[in-house]
Amino acid sequence: MATRFGELAIRFEATVLIAVIHEWLRPCSPCSVAEKSGIAAGSRGFSLRDMHQPRRRDRRLTRRVSSEPARRQAFRLPEEGADVVLVGYFSAKQKDFETLMASAATELAAHGARVVAQMVQRRGVSDGGVRKMGLPFSSRTLLTYGKVREVALACEQANADAVIFVASLTERQQRTLTDMLGRPAVSLPDILTAD
Question: Number of H helices and number of E strands within the chain?
């Protein structure tokens, strides 16, 4: 008996909802709404159309964006003989990542930096990562958070002045990594173009 009553209640509720949806979708004039609801034409009655008012324009001030793209300031190493941690992010397609890391270390040595630690994050080594090989692990940090913690630990142990990434970093990634690591995080191309 209870299940029969429950079925009837659900059917009744569904019927009411369908009727409300049909009334809402049907175009109607204000006069017909007033006539159907028994409300005088001059008085304000409730209608489903009252629930959906047109969007009003937002009056808050908008942030003005300049038409010129923001230019990155070139990063210079803090001093001659600065200790840096070199970090590489490579897909599994790049088999010669060790030679790329070695050439980056020699470039930094030519600019007066001393590489105290090297770390590599590879994408696509596991089965799940093969489909996303060209993408960063995180749009905020480029690397996984575990690898960022490893880099931060290496920086603390080596007392590094800066962290240099072989891959190019976006401005957001630079800001986020600088905050997380506690020292400047810069991409290698930015350093090479500074001179």
Answer: 7, 4
